[in-house]
From TrEMBL:
Domain HTH cro/C1-type, chain residue ranges per copy: 7-60
InterPro entries for the chain: Cro/C1-type_HTH, HTH-type_regulator_Rgg, Lambda_DNA-bd_dom_sf, TPR-like_helical_dom_sf, TPR_rpt
Protein name stated in the entry: Helix-turn-helix transcriptional regulator
Any Pfam family matching the protein: HTH_3
SUPFAM superfamilies associated with the record: lambda repressor-like DNA-binding domains, TPR-like
CDD domains, sorted: HTH_XRE
């Protein structure tokens, strides 16, 4: 990076306006030309600009510490592979301090990308991440392929975390195009395959999710990164379940369970048992489904996780027309609501409200379902809108309210279209 670019980067990091930095030194338009590399400032102007930025004058003589950068990269690889938040926090602090102490380090962009990626792994850094991304966007033309790789990866993860799954998938696909003629390291590719599989899974693009997570799994197995392998097997199982290969999905989960037991880890037990239960439910093996749902419940202490199993057990009993047990588990669900985080509380309260209306045969079902549909539509959860429209339509038809039933059958189909992300009926085929 040239002197102008380094001045611009440091000014933006300090959230300093061009007008303020230039004041009394040069006109803002001249500073803009310096920052864009159109002119080289005189030594006098350089010194005044550095002084205002509170940067030591000898910073310009910094040739970069390649050994330090290599050390940071080695730790960065370890952190990304292990996803260890404590290591991430420690490395972030070291990188951040180094950047502040060496503002004109020639490898500044690489360090800033690294710092931003580490912040993504830590809580309470959302604003700082967005600030860094905005700065990095200004320097895309100056970036190398590996720097662009990481910036795009960061943007894809942000989109995924914001539930913008289509955008995340597009970003990851663009990354694969970006690096077609560039050799990334195996660990970097494994991480890309892993996070891409999550995005494609959320987008219901299960075949791609399976292909990518298998590539990540191969690397994690080879490097004996056991917890990462277990995570991949769980993702693989979910994608297999959603493509209807239920026996293969169960085999993936059981492999994950086997590995977990070998390392005597209970971290994934609840998640694995829950997903095995979901497979057996689809196979209509209700006793096995209930067994695994309850095993999941016993493996967890977090109410935000347990509520998933409670709802699954409630659904299973209702599906079997076991009303008495369904009511018992409905009450369990209603009782746990106050222990949930705010977003989860609203989400599950609406699910339980549907079952309460059905099980208690409440007379105000249309108004209740309207509230539920409004909630899920506001969250763009069109799958649940479609399902609950069908439930209401079926209930209304049973009560011989055929006109209302027809309205909700049609609404349900329209929500299905939205969920499928198609623009015309031809795309459904």
């Amino acid at each position: 990076m040239n002197i102008g670019q380094l001045i611009k980067l440091e000014r933006q990091r300090q959230n300093m306006k061009q007008e303020y930095l230039a004041s009394g030194i040069c006109v803002p338009s001249y500073l803009s030309r310096i920052e864009n590399g159109l002119v080289i400032p005189s030594e006098d102007i350089q010194q005044h600009l550095l002084k205002r930025l509170n940067v030591p004058l000898d910073a310009l003589n910094n040739d970069g510490d390649e050994a330090k950068l290599s050390y940071f990269k080695s730790l960065f690889k370890s952190v990304i592979n292990s996803r260890d938040k404590q290591k991430a926090k420690s490395l972030y602090q070291d990188v951040h301090i180094y950047i502040e102490e060496h503002p004109f380090e020639p490898n500044r962009l690489t360090l800033l990308v690294m710092e931003t990626r580490l912040m993504l792994m830590l809580p309470n850094y959302a604003n700082e991440v967005l600030t860094n991304v905005a700065i990095l966007e200004e320097f895309k033309k100056e970036m190398s392929t590996d720097q662009l790789f990481y910036l795009s990866t960061i943007q894809g993860i942000i989109s995924y975390q914001n539930n913008e799954f289509r955008q995340a998938s597009e970003i990851f696909m663009n990354i694969f195009n970006l690096i077609k003629s560039y050799r990334m390291e195996d660990w970097e590719m494994a991480e890309l395959y892993y996070i891409s599989s999550l995005a494609f899974l959320s987008e219901s693009r299960y075949i791609l999710a399976i292909d990518y997570v298998k590539s990540a799994l191969s690397y994690f197995n080879q490097e004996i990164l056991i917890e990462r392998s277990i995570e991949c097997l769980v993702i693989l199982g979910i994608a297999q379940k959603n493509t209807g290969v239920l026996k293969e999905a169960i085999a993936s989960y059981e492999k994950a369970r086997e590995i977990s037991s070998k390392i005597e880890s209970s971290k994934f037990k609840g998640m694995i048992e829950q997903n095995i239960g979901a497979c057996y439910s689809l196979l209509k093996e209700s006793d096995l489904a209930l067994f695994h749902f309850k095993s999941s419940l016993q493996a967890n202490s977090d109410p935000n996780i347990n509520v998933i199993s409670i709802l699954s057990i409630l659904k299973e009993h209702h599906k079997n027309n076991d009303i008495s047990n369904a009511l018992i588990w409905l009450n369990s669900g209603l009782e746990i609501l106050y222990k949930l985080s705010e977003s989860n509380r609203d989400f599950y309260a609406n699910h339980f409200l549907v079952y309460k209306t059905i099980l208690l045969n409440e007379t105000n079902s249309i108004s209740t379902f309207k509230r539920v549909l409004d909630y899920f539509e506001s969250k763009q959860e069109f799958k649940y809108c479609s399902i609950y429209c069908y439930v209401l339509a079926k209930k209304l038809a049973k009560e011989k309210q055929y006109k209302q039933a027809t309205i909700y059958y049609e609404k349900g189909f329209n929500y299905h279209i939205k969920q499928s992300k198609v623009s015309s009926w031809e795309e459904l085929s």
